[in-house]
Structure formats: C-alpha cells, structure tokens
TrEMBL record:
Gene3D superfamilies: Aldehyde Dehydrogenase, Chain A, domain 1, Aldehyde Dehydrogenase, Chain A, domain 2. It comes from Metabacillus halosaccharovorans. This is Aldehyde dehydrogenase. Keywords: Oxidoreductase. It holds the Pfam family Aldedh. It comes from the Bacteria. The keyword Oxidoreductase applies. Residues 9-465 form the Aldehyde dehydrogenase domain. Belongs to the aldehyde dehydrogenase family. The keyword Glycoprotein does not apply.
Length: 469
C-alpha cells in the first residue's frame, strides 16, 4: 500500500491469482480500517498545499507521470494481463487509454473558468469561481485495473483535489505500478494514496469521515447503492458508474459487415466483462439469416486462451464466480428455448477460467441474459419488426448506460438515438469510449459523468462571490 508517500506493509496478505493459469503470481498487503484512516489523514494534510499550486504546476506533475507510464506501458500491460487476464494487446490498449486521461486532464485543469453575472444593483458585482472539493475517494473494479483509476484520479488531481484509492482485490498490482510511477514523477506525498484491503471496512471509514468530500465508484449497482446510502450521512458528492445492459440494434438497411464488427468489438472487449459490452442484439427480422451467417463466421475467428499468447483474442474470465454466472445464464437460456451455438477456437485446458464465445439464437426477453449483466462472451440475438417495438424493448431495463444502433439511414438513426434512455450511444460505432467525451449512464447505471470537461466538474465546488463596491 502507498500512504503519505511511503510504502506500507501489513501482516495479513492476499494472494493474487493469474486467471489464465490459476498460479499465485504475487502477494499483496491487505489492510482495513487503520490504513483507510491513515490515507485520509495524509490526503487531507496534502490538500492545502496541492490545491494552492497553480494549474500549470499540477499539470507539470501529471505530464511527468504520463511520460513515465508511456515509457513503461509494455511492462504495465504484462502486469495487467497476468492479474486480470485480458489479451496483452488489449492490456496495452488499456494502458494507453488510461494514460490518455492523465494527458487530457493535465491540460483541462488549466481551463477551470469562472463567470461574471450581471448585477441587479449598481453598487454590486457578482462573480462565480470554482474550487477543488477536497479529498476524493476512488473505489475501482478489476475489469479496467488502470483506466478506472486514472479516469477518476487525473481530473481530481488536475482540479486540485487529493485522493485515496481502493483498487479491486483481484487487481492491485497494476494500481501499485501506476503509483510507483506517480511517486517517481515526484507527485507530492499525500496527494495519492492507495489502500488494498477489506472493501467494506475501507468503504465505511471513508463514508463516515467528513473530510472525504467526494466518492467516485465504478462497479456493481448493488455496491453503488450501498455507497450512495452511506454518503448521505455526511452529504458527500458522489459519482457512480454502475452496471449496464447494452442493447445493439441492427436495422434492415444496416451495413451488415459494419454491424457484425460492432458486435464483435463491443461484445468481446475484455471477454465481455465491461459495463458497456453489448448484452442483447436486436436484428430486423428481414435480415436475421444473413446477419447470423456473418456473425457466426466472425465468431469462428475468435481464439480463447492465455492473454500472454500472441494469437489470443479472448482471455479468461476474472474468477470462478464469473464463470458460474455465465454458465447459469446459458442454462437458463437453453431451458427457455435458446438456440445455443459455441463458436471460436477454444483452449483445452484444465486451468484458468476460460469461456468459449456463444451465440444464443432465438433469444426471448424473459431470459436472464436479456435482462441481467452476463459479464461474459455470450451474445443473445433476437428479432424485431418495427422501430417503435425495438426502442420500447431496448428501454425496458433498469439500466441505461450504453446502447448501439446500426443503420445507413442517419435521420432514422438519430431519431432512435434520441428515444433511447441511455447515456452513451454508438451509432454505427461499437467502441465509443474516449477521454474527451462524457461516460456515464441514465437510471440505475449511475450518476455523474467521467471524461471530458464534464469529468472535472465532479471534483469542483461552485463559489458565488457578491462584491459590494
Ligand atoms: N460497472 C462496471 O464496470 C463493473 C460492473 N461489475 C458488475 O458487478 C458484478 C460483480 O462484480 P464485483 O467485482 O463483485 O463488483 P463490486 O461492485 O463488488 O466491486 C467493485 C469495487 O467495489 C469494492 N467494494 C465491494 N464491496 C464494497 C463495499 N461494501 N464498500 C466499498 N467498496 C466495496 C470492491 O472491492 P473488493 O474487490 O475488495 O471486493 C471493488 O473495489 C459483475 O459481475 C458485473 O456485473 C463489476 C465490475 C465492474
Ligand atoms: O465500466 C467499465 O466497464 C469500464 C469502462 C469501459 C470504458 O471506458 O469503455
């Protein structure tokens, strides 16, 4: 753990497992209440000096951190693949994606503008300025061990906040390596702190401490709701990036190759373990056959295996429970009349949490995979007749994070986009996430936005100044 600029050991440790081989690749320190409190103390102490630096000085530290991550990107990618499982090429992509937040917010921190407001009194002048909210706590998941940290911490630091971070128990090694580089970049002590340990204990300490003014969480909707309730007692600002259940709609005039490519890129990123992964595919009934043929051809090219091997396109799932959940969804789909086809080249291995990619044809809306996050390489496909019908079915979900639409008729596409109750829509695009755009959901998919100029607002308070002349 990294607290107040120092490395901190604990008597208790946890094993970090490679999900492709089941080997224990490292042991991590594992703490709880005590370390969580120490981290807040350090972040609180550091806030007064860090927040008073001018934006350009903070940008200097962030740029140095960015450069060091860039120089070590291959090494960080290997660490990530070893603890998380995603293919090395994808891990490298994530490191670069993670780093793009640091680069972007280093600059955006210089554009935290205020405002002047016309006065209704001749002897008054009205101003608005923005200032950092204070200590922020980032609680992050295992599916993006680097990017979910930098997407929170980069805007926070650029705005002048200090931070306490709890990475997921399965993937602390990537977080630790990033922080080593932040240390090397000279980011002052206390500005960044990482605590690995009992999630509930750490969360409770941070929720109860009124010096923590902001919680930013990515993970399950269940834990997000707990944090939201807990944050109420000290009225903390909160950002939640929770579960999703993305529909992907293919209209009869879609470019089928583009639509199939959209399914592959949105479905199989991280073996289907992202909250923006396509969860259900709606294809116009008139093109079901040709679409399915092309989809099956594309699935055949997928190769499941250890992410460290060159040809692997789909790595293992994160753990045994993840595998169990996917199998449960498939059993349910089969019992409800789904046409299950396993495709792709699969690894014949006794070890690892590998799952072969599956198409569930003839999917019906009552199947678990059509309602709950599967978080695995399963693509249920169903048909629709009219746009009104498909939009209604797509919106029938407590989630509202990402949706995808494929059509050559952009006017029609825009109308569908406007009717979808989702925070992110890929129109003829299966990979919409970028550092400069807002990422976040409607309904139970969360609160607030990360990325772009929206992302830095989450770490700022608005101060109104009325000046009497
Ligand atoms: N939106 C997204 O990107 C993600 C969605 N999910 C969804 O959630 C499901 C379950 O995944 P899971 O990993 O269990 O997700 P969680 O929501 O449990 O984990 C996310 C983070 O929250 C922490 N956490 C867990 N419980 C608490 C608590 N009481 N207080 C504070 N922090 C807490 C975890 O710590 P620790 O690891 O130590 O338990 C981890 O750092 C997945 O199958 C998927 O459907 C999961 C991950 C990411
Ligand atoms: O919540 C997730 O699943 C991680 C974000 C993925 C992305 O940024 O595209």
């Amino acid at each position: 753990m990294y607290i107040n600029g120092n490395w901190h050991q604990t008597d208790t440790t946890i094993d970090i497992e490679n999900p492709a081989t089941n080997e224990i690749i490292a042991k991590s320190a594992y703490g709880g209440k005590k370390e969580a409190a120490m981290a807040v103390e350090a972040a609180y102490d550091a806030f007064s000096s860090w927040s008073k630096l001018v934006a350009g000085e903070r940008a200097g530290y962030l740029k140095k951190w960015y450069q060091l991550i860039d120089q070590h990107k291959e090494e960080i990618a290997k660490i990530m693949t070893s603890e998380q499982g995603k293919p090395l090429k994808e891990a490298l992509g994530e490191v670069q994606y993670a780093n793009s937040f640091i680069e972007w917010y280093a600059e955006e921190g210089k554009r935290i503008y205020g405002e002047t407001i016309p006065s209704s009194h001749p002897n008054k002048r009205l101003f608005v300025s923005k200032q950092p909210i204070g200590v922020m706590a980032a609680i992050t998941p295992w599916n993006f061990p680097a990017a979910m940290i930098t997407r929170k911490v980069a805007p926070a630091l650029a705005a002048g906040c200090t931070s306490v971070i709890k990475p997921a128990e399965q993937t602390p090694l990537t977080a630790i390596r990033l922080i080593e580089l932040a240390h090397e970049a000279g980011i002052p002590k206390g500005v960044l702190n990482v605590v690995v340990g009992d999630a509930k204990e750490i969360g409770d300490v941070w929720l109860k401490d009124d010096r923590v003014r902001k919680i930013s969480f990515t993970g399950s909707t269940e834990v997000g709701k707990l944090l939201m309730r807990g944050a109420a007692d000290t009225v903390k600002k909160i950002s939640l990036e929770l579960g999703g259940h993305a529909p992907l709609i293919v209209l009869e005039d879609a470019d089928l190759d583009q639509a199939v490519e959209g399914v592959i890129s949105s479905k199989f990123r991280n073996a289907g373990q992202t909250c923006v992964c396509t969860n259900r595919v709606y294809v116009h009934q008139s093109i079901y056959e040709p679409f399915m043929n092309k989809l099956k051809d594309a699935f055949q090219k997928l190769r499941v295996g250890d992410g460290l091997q060159d040809q692997t396109t789909i790595g293992p799932l994160i753990d045994r429970n993840a595998l169990k959940k996917v199998k449960n969804h498939l059993e349910d789909a089969s019992n409800k009349g789904g046409d299950i086809t396993y495709l792709g080249q699969s690894l014949d291995s006794e070890n690892g949490y590998f799952m072969t990619p599956v198409i569930v044809g003839n999917a019906s809306d009552d199947m678990l995979c059509m309602k709950e996050e599967t978080f695995g390489p399963v693509a249920p496909v169903t048909t629709f007749e009219t746009i009104e019908e498909v939009v209604k079915r797509a919106n029938q979900s407590p989630y509202g994070l990402a949706a995808y639409v494929f059509t050559q008729n952009i006017s029609k596409g825009i109308r569908i986009v406007e009717d979808l109750e989702y925070g992110i829509v890929g129109l003829n695009d299966g990979l919409p996430s970028v550092a400069q755009a807002p990422f976040g959901g409607f309904k139970e998919s969360g609160l607030g936005r990360e990325g772009g100029h929206y992302g830095i607002e989450e770490y700022l308070e608005v101060k109104y100044i009325s000046l009497g002349l």
